[in-house]
Amino acid sequence: MSSRGARQPRALGQASSSMADAPAYKNPNPSNIEIKTKFPVARIKRIMQADEEVGKVAQVTPVAVSKALELFMISLVSSAAEKAKEKGGKRVTAQHLKQVVTEGDQFDFLVDIVSKISEAQEGAGGDTRKRKEKSVATDSDHDEPKKPKKGKGRRKKNDD
């Protein structure tokens, strides 16, 4: 036995004093979103080494940065998607991202970037469809036959 004294095993429910002092962090992926895309580790390493002050980079460092980027994106985009749902929209817009950044303390470092988003994009959300319907209703008073609109995007495959 060593002179320091024997270590007593801890029960599962007990936390060490250093862990009890640590701040509680929010789970960055609370809905357990499956991550299908990965940030390119080689490119991250190249970007890190582009800085003259950075010397050698450990092999695991770009992998850790890649994972941090994934969790950051999940947190930011999930919050913006919640904002879009609150407004009744189906698409996440730059305005939704701006709201997430300006309302919380977590993304304060992005405030300078999102300040460039104009307030003219304020109508992000479900209001655009209502505005279009109103404009179509006012245009229909002109008794002109309307041309059928062409669809946007690719054609859907036939199952025949």
From TrEMBL:
Domain (Transcription factor CBF/NF-Y/archaeal histone) ranges: 38-101
Any one GO molecular-function label of the UniProt entry: core promoter sequence-specific DNA binding
Region (Disordered): 1-33, 120-160
Primary location recorded for the protein, binned into one broad class: nucleus
Biased composition (Basic residues): 147-160
UniProt xrefs under InterPro entries: CBFA_NFYB_domain, Histone-fold, Transcr_DNA_Rep_Reg
Compositionally skewed regions (Basic and acidic residues) per UniProt: 127-146
Keyword RNA-binding found: no
GO cellular-component term (any): negative cofactor 2 complex
Swiss-Prot/TrEMBL keywords: Nucleus
Subcellular location: Nucleus
Pfam family, one: CBFD_NFYB_HMF
PANTHER family registered for this protein in UniProt: DR1-ASSOCIATED COREPRESSOR, HISTONE-LIKE TRANSCRIPTION FACTOR CCAAT-RELATED
Family to which this protein belongs: Belongs to the NC2 alpha/DRAP1 family.
Quaternary organization: Forms the NCT transcriptional regulatory complex with nctB and mot1.
Protein name: NCT transcriptional regulatory complex subunit A
Species of origin: Amylocarpus encephaloides
